[in-house]
Amino acid sequence: MLYFRQMHFRSFILTPLLLLILSAGANAQVRSIEAGALAGNMLDIYPNMPDHNTQVGGFASLRWGDKSSYRSFYGAPESGIQLSYHNLGNNAVLGYAIGAQYQVTFDQYHTKRLRTFQRFNVGGIYVTKPYDFIDNPDNNVFGSPISALLSISAGVKYRFRNNAVALQASYWHSSNAHTALPNVGMNVPMVMLSLERFFYIEDINRIDDQEPFKIDPRLGLMIYGALGLNEAGGTVRPTNGSTYNKNLFAVGGTYRFRTIHRVSLSVEGYYDEAYRLWNETMEWSDGNAILESSAVMLMVGHEFIYGRFGWIVNAGVNLYNPTLDRIINEVEQRSFSSVSKRYVPGRFAVRYYFNLPENSMAGTFIQLGVKSNLGQADFMEIGVGCLISKKQG
Fold first, then answer.
1. Most buried residue, 120, 180, 282, 311, by CB count within 10 Å?
2. Full residue range of the structural domain in which residue 57 is found
3. How many domains are contained in the chain?
4. How far apart are CA 353 and CA 389, in angstroms?
5. Quick one: pLDDT at residue 211?
6. Angstrom distances, CA of residue 187 to CA of 5, 39, 190
């Protein structure tokens, strides 16, 4: 029953992400296809990680040109989808993996043939041998069959005719955002070598024919509600237990000070079923069980805007979080990182607007993100919200 509940939630999470990826390239022109090999060594960030050799694999990418008028603000990036295959370096414990990511590429031209580039990928990864209490207890890297997969790359490319050879250094990170334990996660510096085939004739001196546009600065009111999910326990300690809900609500002000930049200040509160489990198990609760299992945060945020899409980065301070105080003071060792974790919540999220805020009084959106404590994943959340602001004149 637990397995089906977790798979249902992951399907609920991955479906909107897939829709965002497909809609991003729905009306674009295919520009190139790339294939290559990758190799790297997984970082041993915990002493009890399973032994592993060099991780090797391959990848293929399909890219298209985005015709949105936002292109000029971001240096005319290309969008794409990248598929990857990974031999994780220990077939018996870690198995194999398949990744799928949405990709954005930024090229810098130096000569007609030589250029440098940066790439940002976000998506998911499926592993064949995740942690299992009976059959695979040694895999504390992947606690679930499906996890998030992020990667960033920088490289150099040499173009000849309609082809190019590329060499890039890349860093890959995978985590299930505490939706299942253990959750050490995968962190791998990679080297990638590839061959790319272009389907268009390039003119590096061309001027983008998209008409420039500008959105005036404006204030807004944001209302947001979300459902979160995680397992209760430490990062490397498997629980083989239930997942617990978090019910979050936020309200705040926003200011769009540039066409592609928005900042926000919000007050957020959530009730956490995992906190309630801690309080009941440790017999910490001596008052209102709901209040003692809740938290309040003050969050400052920034949003990069690209049409209907937004990339959200939040950081703030915990104004009220009594259960986390007790966990740090009475269960964890009071190190600098644990004490800092108590005070500094954060969030990384992607947002999709069903109707653009500049074209309507109320821009409704769906948001998929990971709430963290000082960069350590706390729980995954999916939410809906509304941004109320004046229309573009």
1. 180
2. 2-198
3. 2
4. 14
5. 52
6. 27, 13, 10
